[in-house]
Specification:
With 567 residues, the protein is an alpha+beta fold. It is globular, with a radius of gyration of 24 Å. Helices cover 31% and strands 23% of the residues.
Length: 567
């Protein structure tokens, strides 16, 4: 992120009236928390507070805790499992990130794989061509992902504060003071009334072990103040953290009156994921794995408020129009309406406050990219925060790369998911013609199809690299074979991995000991490749060279993985 953007956001936060954001979209629900009314302690702060216990927040908190960072995770809702999530697929790049944490195989065993992706009825894409160990979609309800991520976070020592709502924050040169109220502060807590809205936003209910909260103090006027070096908002579309720093969330509602229902079916669909659009109707079916199916439907001609009553007959009608039959749906255990927005915060960082997941970007469900993009945000941010708190000298510049790398990805996801919806619901002759042309083009032009698939699955994104860098810098590193194992096994524990030719491995064998132990792994190629490669904890290439000597490699490591213990 450039300094001009952040300074402008800082100014907005400083001048925002108490209880409002500086630029709140006209249709944004709720009242923004206070941006600058807390009294700031003089003492410096440590650790990180993550706000929002959905998949993004859980992955980030777990990464930080495993790196030795003190983490408190604040969640507005009560501590319980919820099945009201709308996310159902994990893409290849997300599975690679989970593999780097030793979690992918367990999740693969829980879900069902899909090796073909259908778009616009006429186009079927073979996922088996993906250059990844995970050359498929994994169909798995979001709450199953949350349970695994939460278990890891608890084991790593994350401290949970449930039923705790953010009411404001203020930051200074040494840290952030977060004002909260709830069961852990003044005895009042959240309720289950927000679950349906959170499901529509992509926010997530979780299970886990409630623990001690961050060190805090009673605030004037009730509530409590928590103090940390950094705060990360992963608290969904209605993010209290984003509003508290005065960040706008520009965009618009793209699809209104989308219906959701969890139902049983008398007839099992022929495909694992069933999706289609005909005329004014669109419908999607996905299994929970417990006998119930999630139905998502929309009819262009029925634009009603989210709180308009919904019955199963309406869900059946939309499904029949879009899919040709309603599969004998019955026994709905939950039904609701929501609207789908396309929005993105202009900045993912305001000083010591950062945003990730739906707090930073929301878009249509098309392509199943929402939860995946948030998890990849967390994978990018976690190791950077840990490095900064561990004393890395270029810490401020390193955190700015989070904006530079992830904001363009969020923008791309907004465009691709929105484009899929618009083409799927094409009605006018010229838009139908454009869809036919695109379908034919993708069906016959392999490179274009590969590029599109790389964007949807996440494996096609590369990050900006400094001028003059090796061509591999910034690119995703595939799960290459090493002399002992494979790359994504070596990345586990949030480590950098230095890969060198086999004959030079002995010269660098001691680099991953001492003060770098647990933060760097030195490995050698299983092949005769000559490239020296430093891979970041998020699986992207940090540095590469075809002819580096020991001095150059030592200098690179001194900057990227300084020889000191994180803390």
């Amino acid at each position: 992120m450039n300094g001009t953007t952040r300074n402008a956001a800082d100014a907005a936060a400083r001048t925002a009236p108490a209880g409002t954001s500086a630029e709140t979209p006209a249709d944004a629900p709720g009242t923004a928390p206070t941006a600058a009314r807390a009294e700031v302690p003089a003492a410096a702060a440590g650790g990180v507070i993550v706000v929002g216990a959905g998949p993004t927040g859980l992955l980030l908190a777990g990464d930080l805790a495993e790196a030795g960072v003190e983490v408190t995770l604040v969640e507005k809702r009560a501590h319980r499992i919820s099945n009201l999530s709308r996310a159902f697929v994990l893409h290849a790049r997300t599975l690679e990130q989970l593999d780097a944490r030793g979690l992918a195989d367990e999740l693969e065993a829980k879900g069902q794989t899909l090796d073909r992706l259908g778009l616009f009825t006429r186009l079927t894409i073979d996922l088996g061509t993906l250059p990844s160990r995970f050359n498929h979609l994994l169909v798995l309800p979001q709450y199953e992902v949350e349970k695994v991520l939460e278990r890891r976070a608890v084991a790593a020592g994350v401290r949970f504060r449930y039923e705790t709502e953010v009411t404001g924050l203020v930051q200074d040169a040494d840290g952030v003071t977060l004002r909260v109220r709830g069961a852990g502060a003044d005895g009042t807590g959240g309720t289950d009334e927000t679950d349906a809205a959170d499901a529509a936003d992509g926010a997530d209910g979780v299970s886990g072990t409630d623990g001690a909260g961050a060190t805090g103090r009673a605030g004037s006027g009730g509530g409590e103040e928590l103090r940390a070096a950094y705060v990360v908002g992963t608290d969904g579309m209605r993010s209290a953290v984003r509003q508290a720093v005065g960040l706008a969330f520009p965009g618009r509602s793209v699809i209104r009156s989308v219906v959701l229902a969890d139902v049983r079916l008398a007839e099992e669909p022929e495909t694992l994921l069933t999706v289609n659009a005909v005329g004014d109707a669109f419908a999607f079916l996905a299994p929970f794995g417990d006998g119930y199916y999630r139905v998502i439907g929309w009819h262009r001609g029925r634009d009603v408020a989210d709180d308009e009553p919904l019955d199963l007959d309406e869900v059946r009608e939309i499904t029949r129009l879009a899919l040709g039959r309603d599969f004998g749906m019955h026994d709905a255990r939950w039904m609701s309406r929501f609207h789908s927005d396309e929005r993105q915060a202009p900045s993912y960082r305001v000083g010591r406050v950062l945003l990730a997941g739906d707090a930073a970007h929301v878009h249509t469900p098309a392509g199943g990219q929402g939860m995946n993009t948030g998890l990849q945000d967390a994978a990018n941010l976690g190791w950077k925060l840990a490095a900064v708190l561990g004393g890395r000298r270029d810490g401020d510049a390193l955190l700015d790369t989070y904006q530079a790398e992830r904001h363009p990805v969020g923008r791309s996801v907004l465009r691709s998911s929105g484009g899929i919806v618009r083409l799927a619901m094409a009605k006018r002759p010229w838009t139908l013609a454009a869809r036919r042309l695109l379908t034919t083009f993708l069906d016959h032009v392999g490179p274009a199809r590969t590029r599109m698939l790389g964007r949807i699955t996440g494996i096609g994104y590369a990050y900006p690299a400094p001028r003059g860098s090796h061509p591999l810098v910034g690119r995703r590193a595939p799960d290459v074979a090493l002399r002992d194992g494979r790359l994504y096994e070596a990345l586990r524990g949030g480590r950098f991995v230095l890969i060198v030719p086999e004959e030079r491995a002995g010269a660098f064998a001691d680099l991953d000991g001492g003060d770098r132990k647990g933060r760097l792994a030195v490995a050698s190629w299983a092949s005769d490749r000559r490239t020296a490669l430093l891979v970041r904890p998020d699986g992207h290439v940090a540095w590469a060279s075809e002819s580096a000597d020991a001095a150059e490699i030592g200098a690179v490591l001194a900057g990227a993985v300084p020889a000191r213990t994180a803390g």
